[in-house]
Amino acid sequence: MENSGPPESLKKQLERARFERGIEVAESLAAHRALLTTTELARINRIVCGLPENADPWRQEPVTLTLPSGRVETIALIANPVPATRDRLHQATELAERGATVDAAIDTYVGLVLSHVFKDGNRRTAVLSAHYFLKRYGVPLSGLAIHELGLGDLRQEGEIESLRTTIQQMAKFAARSRGES
Fold first, then answer.
1. pLDDT truncated to tens, each residue of the chain (181 aa)?
2. Of 87, 111, 114, 126, which sees the most CB atoms within 10 A?
3. How far apart are CA 105 and CA 149, in angstroms?
4. Shortest CA distance to 131 belongs to which of 165, 95, 155, 102?
5. What are phi and psi of 34, to 5 degrees?
6. What's the rounded Cα separation, in Å, for the pair 177 and 18?
7. Can you give the pLDDT at residue 1?
8. CA dist 175 to 53, 116, 139, 151, Å?
9. Which residues 6+ apart lie within 8 Å of 77 measured at CB?
């Protein structure tokens, strides 16, 4: 039997290294108070997927996915995912500016995961967008912690609210650990 790539452990290590590089980029954007734009989000996606700088990461066709629940779902064609993603990022920025940072992070994460705007790396990119909002607006919660959560199928009833509750509790605990209220 022919091996068509690196052993699974090396793939995981490479994926983790790319994700950590994505964290560095998201944190740099947040530290410099730069807006998370669709251009920057696409750059983060290319990093986590190991794509060349000139690659187009945006999905332009239907895709069939196997969800964490084992259910198979086909997600419809997205004619142009950039404007919808731009709107989502703008809405999240407005939420965060009004003090609802955790909601901004969660809404961005959920929206990106459910719309599946990229060809690959949607969950990792969504986690990094949430990480950006948390860091930029001073919530002491790591995107890595969100990435490590055993998330269910966000399409199932109650899963989004469960995620929201979990992340809000994690943010409160992190703030208390730092001596904040």
1. 455 666 778 988 999 999 999 999 999 999 999 999 999 999 999 999 999 999 999 998 899 988 777 889 898 877 789 999 999 999 999 999 999 999 999 999 999 999 999 999 999 999 999 999 999 999 888 777 777 776 668 888 888 888 889 888 888 888 787 776 5
2. 126
3. 15
4. 102
5. -80, 145
6. 29
7. 47
8. 37, 31, 7, 22
9. 60, 61, 62
The predicted pLDDT at position 51 comes to 97
Q: What is the pLDDT of residue 170?
A: 87
Question: Are the C-beta atoms of 105 and 92 separated by less than 8 Å?
Answer: yes
Domain residue spans in the chain? 8-177
Instruction: Number of helices (H) and strands (E) in the chain: give both, helices first.
Output: 7, 2
- Alpha carbons 131 and 137: distance in angstroms, whole number: 10
Cβ 80 vs Cβ 92: under 8 Å: no
User: Which residue, among 136, 115, 113, has the nearest Cα to 124 in the 3D structure?
Assistant: 113
User: Token pair for residue 56?
Assistant: 């187009």
DSSP state of 154: T
What's the gap between Cα 159 and its chain centre? 16
Give the number of other Cβ atoms within 10 Å of residue 122's Cβ: 23
